[in-house]
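Researcher: Here's a chain I'd like modeled. Treat it as a single chain, no partners, no ligands.
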Amino acid sequence: MEAINTLEYGEVKIASEVVATIVGLAALEVKGVAGMSGGLANGIAEKLGKKSLSKGVKLEIKEKEVIIDLYIIVDYGTKIPDISWEIQNNVIKVVETMIGLKAMNVNIHVQGVHFPQEPAKQENQ
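Model: Modeled as a single isolated chain. Structure tokens:
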């Protein structure tokens, strides 16, 4: 499905893949989001890079409205309710200003926690 905006002289059609990528980028702008997740595949959450942003986003587009499900991985120590609220606000702002759709729901699904890497321990020789 695609987003359609009717203008004075015609229509603008935005592919759902484009909408999903914009939504994914808006989510990653929020501090504390470690990455997007492709959902649960065979019981394992797969962390995806920036090339696969749309795979962490599920959209249901209806005429001028959209329902968004985001599958994210958060950094350890992040307050999940706070980051969820911030993601919702950022996504709604971006969807409504850039695409012209009304975001009816922005559902956040936390699929995992990213732990900081410990520095490699050097052995005494």
